[in-house]
């Protein structure tokens, strides 16, 4: 039998905002919002001082300004954030090669076996956090657990600048009182469905048994039961390429297709913000395809996509293409929709894309 996995999830604290406060001492202790001002901009990050007012990432910037009128808006500088992220990644690599970045500011590490041979995963996490503080003057929180989903929950447990450890014998007791919404994949809609069944906590979910959950929710029901027991066999995957970034929303009331445009534009901003993080990552990649996702009131899921000759280069481009994709939805006009999503796919390496663009330009196709 292989040894039990030891997984660390490291999450930099309010990363973009913390970099801005580090580099500009006049911002320290003040509510900083990393975003462009404007009706169609979204928040990339908020300092903990701004979060006290309810400001969160991916929130429309105009709402953030209403919640915190005294907020200091700083335009994002992804090149600078990328450089700091590279520093942090180098610290990770001193301990293990099994690193799975999720974004510029968080990653999973498999430290079952390490280069440094520290006595425990907890000691490794502490060493990493200490090095980050010393070398970048920033703080990070860490979760240590036997698998990825537990480590991610744990890293959020004592934020900011904290560490939380879930040992194998503590898993079931730790999970039991948590709201089911803490499980990965359980969004607001699924949480509401579970609540209707009298399932509010992970412990409630566990008591229902795998068979009942599978009968109600199919294969996802069996997966829910596994998660309620703390079972997650997904390995840390170094440098896993992003296939798609997206944002979606379920409406309070079902809407006709011609009333969805404002929601598409708002979600395009969120999807574009996620794309910009991918485009500024260590292995920068850009998307070429826009995807529109719809779910009808009777739970039919529709997707439409388009790859323009010139890749989208703004949230406005994404929104215009996604809105146009509604014309390819062949449903009666009276059809109502309960969910809309906007995504970007078809990722290619930035260098590769630039080389292709130059080639087409040189032969007269651009």
UniProtKB/TrEMBL annotation:
<dbReference type="Pfam" id="PF00817">
    <property type="entry name" value="IMS"/>
</dbReference>
<protein>
    <recommendedName>
        <fullName>DNA polymerase IV</fullName>
        <ecNumber>2.7.7.7</ecNumber>
    </recommendedName>
</protein>
<feature type="domain" description="UmuC">
    <location>
        <begin position="7"/>
        <end position="187"/>
    </location>
</feature>
<keyword id="KW-0515">Mutator protein</keyword>
<keyword id="KW-0548">Nucleotidyltransferase</keyword>
<comment type="similarity">
    <text>Belongs to the DNA polymerase type-Y family.</text>
</comment>
<dbReference type="InterPro" id="IPR022880">
    <property type="entry name" value="DNApol_IV"/>
</dbReference>
<keyword id="KW-0479">Metal-binding</keyword>
<feature type="binding site">
    <location>
        <position position="105"/>
    </location>
    <ligand>
        <name>Mg(2+)</name>
    </ligand>
</feature>
<keyword id="KW-0963">Cytoplasm</keyword>
<feature type="binding site">
    <location>
        <position position="11"/>
    </location>
    <ligand>
        <name>Mg(2+)</name>
    </ligand>
</feature>
<comment type="subunit">
    <text>Monomer.</text>
</comment>
<keyword id="KW-0239">DNA-directed DNA polymerase</keyword>
<dbReference type="InterPro" id="IPR001126">
    <property type="entry name" value="UmuC"/>
</dbReference>
<comment type="function">
    <text>Poorly processive, error-prone DNA polymerase involved in untargeted mutagenesis. Copies undamaged DNA at stalled replication forks, which arise in vivo from mismatched or misaligned primer ends. These misaligned primers can be extended by PolIV. Exhibits no 3'-5' exonuclease (proofreading) activity. May be involved in translesional synthesis, in conjunction with the beta clamp from PolIII.</text>
</comment>
<keyword id="KW-0808">Transferase</keyword>
<dbReference type="GO" id="GO:0003887">
    <property type="term" value="F:DNA-directed DNA polymerase activity"/>
</dbReference>
<keyword id="KW-0234">DNA repair</keyword>
<feature type="site" description="Substrate discrimination">
    <location>
        <position position="16"/>
    </location>
</feature>
<dbReference type="InterPro" id="IPR053848">
    <property type="entry name" value="IMS_HHH_1"/>
</dbReference>
<dbReference type="InterPro" id="IPR043502">
    <property type="entry name" value="DNA/RNA_pol_sf"/>
</dbReference>
<dbReference type="Pfam" id="PF11799">
    <property type="entry name" value="IMS_C"/>
</dbReference>
<feature type="active site">
    <location>
        <position position="106"/>
    </location>
</feature>
<keyword id="KW-0235">DNA replication</keyword>
<dbReference type="InterPro" id="IPR036775">
    <property type="entry name" value="DNA_pol_Y-fam_lit_finger_sf"/>
</dbReference>
<dbReference type="InterPro" id="IPR043128">
    <property type="entry name" value="Rev_trsase/Diguanyl_cyclase"/>
</dbReference>
<keyword id="KW-0460">Magnesium</keyword>
<dbReference type="InterPro" id="IPR050116">
    <property type="entry name" value="DNA_polymerase-Y"/>
</dbReference>
<dbReference type="Pfam" id="PF21999">
    <property type="entry name" value="IMS_HHH_1"/>
</dbReference>
<keyword id="KW-0227">DNA damage</keyword>
<keyword id="KW-0238">DNA-binding</keyword>
<dbReference type="InterPro" id="IPR017961">
    <property type="entry name" value="DNA_pol_Y-fam_little_finger"/>
</dbReference>
